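Good morning C.,

I know you're traveling, so I'll keep this short. The sequence:
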Amino acid sequence: MTSVLRPCPKCGAQIPADAPEGGCPGCLLETGLGVFPHLSVTADDDCGSAENVEARDANAAPRSKKVARAAGMLGDLGDYELLEEIGRGGQGVVFRARQKSLNRTVALKVIGLGQWATKAHLKRFRLEAEAAASLDHPCIVPIYEVGERDGSCYFSMGFVDGGQLDAVAKREPMPIRHAAELIAKLARTVHYAHERGILHRDIKPGNILLDAKGEPHLTDFGLARLVETESTVTRTMEVLGTPSYMAPEQAVGNNARVAGATDIYGLGAVLYQLLTGHPPFAGGTTFETVRLVLDTEPRQPRLLNPKVDRDLATICLKCLEKDPRRRYSSALAFAEDLERWLKHKPIRARRTGLFTRGRKWVRRNPTTAVLVVALAAVVGAMIWKSDLVHPQVTTGIAVLPFEDRSEDKANAYFVDGIQDEILTRLSKIADLKVISRTSTQHYKSAPENLPEIARQLGVAHILEGSVQKSGDAVRVNVQLIKAANDSHLWADTYDRRLTDIFSVESEVAKAIADQLQAKLSQKEKSAISERPTSDLAAYDLFLRAKECIYDGDVNPSRLRDDIFKAVQLLDQALARDPAFLLAHCQLARAHDLIYWFNFDHTETRLALAETSVRAAVRLQPDSGETHLAQATHFYWGYRNYDRAREELAKAQDALPNNVQIFMFLGFIDRRQGRWDEAIRNLERAVDLDPRNVERIWRVGQIYASDLRRYRDAIAMANRALALEPRSAFLRALPAVIGVEVDANMAPLRATLNAIEAERPALAAEVANISFQLALRERDPAAAAHALANIPSEGKGTTYYSDIPYPHAWFEGLLAKLRQDAPAAHAAFTAARTETEKLVRAQPGNEEPLKVLALIDAELGEKEKAIQEGRTACDMIPVSKDALDGVGLITDLGRIYALTGEKDLALKQLEIVSKIPCGPSYGELRLDSEWDSLRGDPRFEKLVEEARQPFALK
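The tokens, ready to paste straight into the viewer:
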């Protein structure tokens, strides 16, 4: 049964429906105090609405006398001297008070419970209030002390010397952008509390205080349900909250469904009030308001305030969806969408479509809906035959490869460079969606099937071009095409001297922005007009270096050689122009890549990267490229993910379409254990680079290895395979994932056999997978066959490893599988000699040390192995890196298992089994390192638990 709060006839405050007449908690408290007999409180106020504040100001003098009398009657309520009332409502009265022991001003809230104050309730009040008091955030009013006196609970809070949001907004309408900024701050505040398991459950303007600087502060955090009693409210499913701002699940009294989405609704309701001047729903009575909350949709904010744009209205209404599942997935996601709107970037919320609006209308008007079914069928058939069911993408642009019309084909890098520079300048315009070059390079210049290409890339417009370079003269032809009907929107030809090439790139970008009616800020206009260098020879070297880095990105097998070549070219460019900012940024990236991928993981290499970053900061500290270079340096060089995130946020303002920013944000989220945020950022990167196979399968990798969302992982693997069907690795990947799910190796073995039978040359591409599978199958012949295809420098024994292993390591594993102990010992000894050199050369790198520990474990050097494994774990703890830290703990467990320390091995597994990116069922069920633990009930339990995927969503 659902009962609705009823207003007190004396003060108007909400009181429990099953309370006796005269049972208003506020009035009971007032009777006990002998104060405030004439103050009126509206039905949707709690402790201090705008009306209360105004009434307080109008009656300040007489009220002060009454407060003084009340203070005397209460004996100052223990340690607190009551100074004045600052609000009241259905739960009690709030005073400004002085805490005598600390001589500080506080807000003291006294909740008069009277006859309902059972021991169980008082205990619950204290527990919930103490939980809320644990929150330490600058935008949450802190709770200092919790207490109880004669059936009245009280708690003291920080005193915010400003005003309540509703009162401030009533005095002066809040600008729309200011309202969005304020709610974004509050949403991040709410997310902070949600991460700590605490809900607010009564977000409304009256519970938001603005300090003297206009900064928001949430009060009553986690205390909205404290008037609930075990004997009445729980049983009757009492409606808790403020009707105009409560979510439907609260309005029906379904407290079991109250969750984070409920607070998101409250935030959206407050935003709605700030944008329109009205709450989403307001009836003449509490009952009417609740009925509106349950049965009607809020009016479009733009109907009440035409200044509200469509995107902001869409964000607001997404929060107010009746179904909690249709709201934002988290308060953080809500905050980020508001911040995207504030930065004039595309939002992620989508306006409610025709089908969804129709479905909602049918729920509200079931009888009328039956009458239009026949008509809908006819209209639907007509629509199906039209283009309406195949809407065209209306935003976004892709710059296809430019045609090289030069006689000297050695100029190909220059042609690619012009295309890339125009794309880079366009990508600095926040009002455009610009597809990354790695996705457009898959197409030839001037293709015939533009509508299909646009569909694949998710854009509406295509830029084609050609470049003809002869001596110091250059001709650039460009044309902008609307892909849907292959119509030319604009075209131009630029005949310039080579020294004027930068102005050509800028003019093209500006012309395209004009044609697409993109709004350019003054900062963006300056950015796309900037001349990177005055030295054309340095620019030529820079373009060659960029091509090397690009080639290494798309062809990982050539990464090492290409990166070192890029360093040489960039050094030459900077020797000609030491003020060449972009060259410094690229050089820092190259050195950091060399360091991160262990090509040269030394302090000397890190110092070279640091020198380049400092040069960039010295030249242009506020440049987006500088901030991006700093971010990647903090990430790759120091694993300082917090600083990297800060720099990425700054870079994003200047580089809104830069794929690297979203990739690194996703990687940081992953390493800090924010799995959902990682997927969102990485999928945004894929949206800007939709045909980049590596990005797609790495998203699938996170779904599989981190989140255990295997269906999503296989879907991403198949998506990547559709783009590169000749890839043996991608062809095997779905079966690889399948092994981790159910430990069934037969499909993978069949796939690998088919690949090699069709094209033996592809065996090397899947050699690591084949070797790992053979070890799991305990098949020496298959392992020997796979080992023959593994290059002499080795490559990690796991599917996704970038860690270089000595080839002798694989030889040792094969000899061990053959049960040839002397050969295994000889191979592992050789592997140790080679790995020890790397450990000495790279003392700050935990990866070679981990490999050395595993080798020593295989050699029976128990003490050495354990010490090395522990040291590696200490270098990268889980608190610093949730990804590599978990891997190191897992490997320490392997070391313990190999050296006979079963209890310690199980302890490590118990730790990582509680973390999403711990070992999979396939690893535990099949890997030979765990053989010594098999049969132990503790291990078998962990194996069985690993069969269940982590339900993070």
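Safe travels,
E.
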